[in-house]
Amino acid sequence: MKRIAEILSWIALAVTLAPACLFFVDKLDLAQAQAWMLVATVLWFIATPFWMEHKAS
After folding, report:
1. Cα–Cα distance between 33 and 20 in angstroms, integer?
2. What is the spatial distance between Cα 52 and Cα 42, in angstroms, rounded to a whole number?
3. Do 50 and 5 touch, CB atoms closer than 8 A?
4. What number of H helices and E strands is found in the chain?
5. Longest dimension (CA), the chain
């Protein structure tokens, strides 16, 4: 499960960056880019805590 969360968070991070690049080359309009970035950001914030642990010292 931890590995799946890690892979999902890396994919979400890539999907967060991709719309900005696609918007820059006029493949997406602003509303579409914002929607994709919002969805990917929420997914990243959900998936990442499951594999990125903080150990108390």
Report:
1. 7
2. 16
3. yes
4. 2, 0
5. 49
| This prediction's pTM | 0.79
Spatial separation of the C-alpha atoms in residues 20 and 7, rounded to whole Å: 21
Q: Please choose, from the candidates 44, 49, 56, 54, the residue with its C-alpha nearest in 3D space to the C-alpha of residue 1.
A: 49
**What DSSP character marks residue 51?**
T
- Residue 30 · residue 23 · CB < 8 Å: yes
CA distance 3 to 37: 23
Residue of 23, 21, 18 lying closest to 44 (CA atoms): 18
Per-residue pLDDT of the chain (57 residues; tens, 9 = 90+): 889 999 999 999 999 999 999 999 999 999 999 999 999 999 999 999 888 876 766
